[in-house]
Write a structure and sequence with these properties.
InterPro entries: MCP, MCP_dom_sf, MCP_transmembrane, Mito/Peroxisomal_Carrier. Keywords: Membrane, Peroxisome, Repeat, Transmembrane, Transmembrane helix, Transport. Solcar repeats lie at residues 7-119, 127-221. This is Peroxisomal membrane protein PMP34. It is a multi-pass membrane protein. This protein is mostly helical. The protein has a single domain (7-231), classed as Mitochondrial carrier fold (Alpha/alpha barrel). The protein is 70% helix and 0% strand. The protein has helices spanning 7-58, 76-87, 96-101, 104-121, 129-159, 174-188, 197-225. The longest helix has 52 residues, at 7-58. The protein starts with 6 loop residues before the first helix and ends in a 9-residue tail after the last helix.
Length: 234
């Protein structure tokens, strides 16, 4: 036992810890960039599927908007074929730019969740299950409300059957995103950017609140089993 706790071993342990902290500090930006890149790759790979999925779901629906051109797809492969044939290959990536911006939705969610949690922990030693559930719900509601206009534009671009600004036919361009936002506000007012928000909140807020409740309970149970009860305050 004395050999294990010797001064020499302590020096090696401290040196290893310092080296590890230094390496993590130096390469942490690369790890952050890797996570962001994974999100971008995921968006680029799945956007064509979302475009086709959106169009198939809305096919046959009656729209009051005269700017919408009706579609007639016989299935998923026919939808891919018609989109590429009539609109070009890049049309499969309509809505990519808003999707990339929406990668920040989870970041906003976690930022508000951690901020609200820290504020509550200043007033009490331990958070109840109800506290965690409410904090998770409020944080997700804020993130959803902040990013919902982009989700509205994303859906419009994915559907793609709009007679857009004749001066610029590139659906994924920033100019047309701003054009769609302006047209939406001009036609429906500022609340036009938030149509369908109630259903989206019910879908995402409850899911996120339950997720964080389960996460905190599992984390607390893990720390307890490992004998680190005081390291976690839930």
């Amino acid at each position: 036992m004395a050999s294990v706790l010797s001064y020499e071993n302590l020096v090696h342990a401290v040196a290893g810890a310092v080296g590890s902290v230094t390496a993590m500090t130096v390469f942490f930006p690369l790890d952050t960039a890797r996570l962001r890149l994974q999100g971008v790759v995921n968006v680029l790979l799945t956007t064509p599927l979302w475009v086709v999925n959106t169009r198939l779901k809305l096919q046959g629906a009656k729209f009051r908007n005269e700017d919408i051109v009706p579609t007639n797809y016989r299935g998923i492969f026919d939808a891919f074929h018609q989109i590429v044939r009539d609109e070009g290959l890049l049309s499969l990536w309509n809505g990519t730019f808003p999707s990339l911006l929406l990668v920040f939705n989870p970041a906003i969610h976690f930022m508000f969740y951690e901020g609200l949690k820290r504020q509550l922990l200043k007033k009490r030693k331990k958070l109840s299950s109800l506290d965690v559930f409410i904090i998770g719900a409020v944080a997700k509601a804020i993130a959803t409300i902040v990013t919902y206009p982009m989700q509205t534009v994303q859906s419009i671009l994915r559907f793609g059957r709009h007679r857009l600004n004749p001066e610029n036919r590139t659906l994924g361009s920033l100019r047309n995103i701003l054009y769609l936002l302006h047209q939406r506000i001009r036609r429906f007012g500022i609340m036009g950017l938030y149509k369908g928000l109630e259903a989206k909140l019910l879908q995402t807020v409850l899911t996120a609140a339950l997720m964080f409740l389960v996460y905190e309970k599992l984390t607390a149970a893990t720390f307890t089993v490992m004998g680190l009860k005081n390291a976690h305050k839930h």
